[in-house]
Design a protein that fits this description.
There is one protein chain. This protein is globular. Strands 1, 2, 3, 4, 5, 6, 7, 8 and 9 form a 9-stranded antiparallel β-sheet that branches. It is 8% helix and 29% strand. It has one domain: Sandwich (Jelly Rolls).
Length: 173
């Protein structure tokens, strides 16, 4: 890595440690949150960790506090649709130091079984889901937008389990 290049993510993903792709059976629990049964990945972020990405994704915060585009988000069953094209600043989720002020939602009591020891008061727990909104195909209608959401993830060898989510640690134009 060239030291002159900006590092956007500090999140070091590790399947089964802080990144969990929910199985079809585990996704049945999403009904308790009012979420659709779609490909879903749970992420556990420690205070101060950042996860930057491009693409489209639905984000639901279940525990802790995060900031995204300068806005603080708190736990709720609301899924936030995120659109992060290459033509705009890279979306960055930052886990706050105030995680312990926002405990796990009662609708997500099934989550500790899946995440094990990651559901601790100092972590932000979020779900990322495929959005399937069709905006990714905008380039078919207007060539200017061709591939605007496409990016090769530089998280080599890490599967986030989502179709239109491209995590980045270093952004190359």
């Amino acid at each position: 890595m060239d030291s002159a290049e900006p590092v956007l993510s500090t999140f070091e993903s590790s399947a089964g440690l802080n990144l969990f792709i929910l199985s079809v059976e585990e996704r049945r629990n999403l009904k308790a949150l009012g979420l659709p049964d779609k490909r879903t990945t749970a992420i556990a972020l420690q205070a101060g960790e950042t996860l930057s990405f491009l693409g489209t994704v639905g984000l639901t915060l279940l525990q802790g506090e995060i900031t995204l585009f300068g806005t603080a988000l708190h736990p709720s069953t609301t899924q936030h649709p995120i659109f992060a094209p290459r033509s705009y600043p890279v979306a960055t989720i930052t886990a706050s130091n105030n995680a312990s002020d926002h405990p796990l939602l009662s609708e997500a009591t099934w989550l500790p079984e899946i995440l094990g020891g990651n559901v601790t008061p100092d972590r932000a727990i979020l779900l990322l889901q495929d959005l399937d909104c069709g905006i990714e195909d905008l380039g078919r209608v207007c060539q200017t937008f061709a591939n605007v959401f496409n990016i090769d993830s530089d998280y080599r060898g890490v599967d986030f389990g989502l179709a239109q989510f491209g995590p980045v640690s270093i952004f190359h134009r």
